[in-house]
Design goal:
The protein is globular. The protein has 12 helices and 15 strands. By secondary structure, it is of the alpha/beta class.
Length: 360
Amino acid sequence: MKHFLYIFTSLLLLCSCSKDEDRFPATRTVIAYLAADNDLWEDALRSIEEMKSGFREGGAQLVVFADIANEASCLLEIGKNTATAVKIYPECNSADAAQMRKILEEIITMYPAESYGLILWSHGSSWLPADAQLRSFGYDSGVQMNIAELASSLPVRFDYILFDACLMGSVEVAYELRQKTNFIVASSLPAIYTGFPYEDVMPELLSLRPDLRKVAEGYFSYYQYIMTGIFQSATISVIDTKELEKLALATRWIVETQSFDKSAFDRTAVQRLDAYQEQYLFDFMDFISKSFPAANKSELTGQLNKTVLYKAHTAKFMNQFEINTFCGLSCYIPLESREDLNVYYRQLEWCKAAGFDKLF
């Protein structure tokens, strides 16, 4: 990693920070936003190297905003085994929503295209609020973004958003971002620090017509067949956001027409998808099935299959917790002792649209 850091520092010192403002619109620009001014900085440097190795000419243009700990933030234009620094930024907080929007708007102006893909790379903790002693998305000098703030920071509708961050494959996150992207690729589990195998999946991400199932398959194959032990741990999903509102309606019908005995319900019987002691994230369909055992779930199941285009999981995560079922989305189950979380959760668009507010 010291070698990577030396290269990165040298690149910043030697770069020419200018950009041709007369660039013609490309077919697609892929933006990787690496919020790594934190303990993940070494992994961010590795990801940049893998993106360089995986770059293929003839597809989309690839630019990386990198906020690396102890280094100046920089915008990199990626080529095959090359990274050209085109701008160095003054000190900024990459986990600040307003700052993120400003940076993305500038990149879109500098690299105009007919369509855009977005890689969001950092810490993550699903829908959980930034002040809950957990992380939502990003982490920089104690600052994190709530999911609603993240949505507000995205200046265009992206063809896809790929989360290289823990726990972002939740129905709450996907619903909050449904107006900002056509597809989401994300893990519902805590992600291993190695993240996506960019050398393998970058060619598809840069394709003018990317097959996101192949991207997800590449991620799953890496953890299922190459990694071992505690590192053989992964879930991955491809989510079609245009189907989410119908999923919410199908869910709401069950919640509103069936009874739910909150006092007798055992949260620990539902498939867990986090390692937190209190347990916040569970398999969405397993929760519905065990909460409303008598309900006719055929409509919901059919809609879920339209919403989650691809899903896969290893047998365990962190070599400790078995994954017996995985529908492709996680969700929160109300926890009476955490009213601080419940108050925040009621503000989420999914909670209201899917009738989850009736569960409190």
